[in-house]
């Protein structure tokens, strides 16, 4: 049962990794299309969104096969600057007294 949850979490991480380049391509495509709304710009915008999706799929699959998608997402979401925040605050308080 735990293997099932690990697979589900890896799929969610994979989707998060895919979403990043896709949304960037989609955003650039939307900017291009809405700057001048014609068929050529629509085709370019759709092409950029599809390109972002393809890059996202390739990148997410590569990460999933090497280290695991949840490992990557957790490393990206980590805030190492805040890990020692409590010890720094305690040192400042002890110096003031």
Describe the structure.
It is a single chain. The protein has 97 residues and is mainly α. The chain has one domain. 86% of the residues lie in helices and 0% in strands. It is built from 4 helices and no strands. Helix 1 packs antiparallel against helix 2 (39-66).
Rg, Cα atoms, Å: 21 Å
* Gross geometry: flat
Which runs of at least 5 residues are low in confidence (pLDDT < 50)?
none
Give me the secondary-structure category.
Answer: mainly alpha
As a percent range, the share of helical residues equals over 70%
Mean pLDDT: 85
Gap between N and C termini? 53 Å
Number of domains: 1
Beta-strand portion reads under 5%
Describe the main β-sheet briefly. none
The tally of strands reads 0
Count of alpha and pi helical runs: 4
- Along the chain, the helix and strand elements come as HHHH
What descriptors fit this protein?
97 residues, mainly alpha
List the helices and strands and how they pair.
Layout lengths: L1 H34 L3 H28 L2 H9 L7 H12 L1
Helix pairs in contact: 1-2, 1-3
Brief write-up:
The protein is mostly helical.
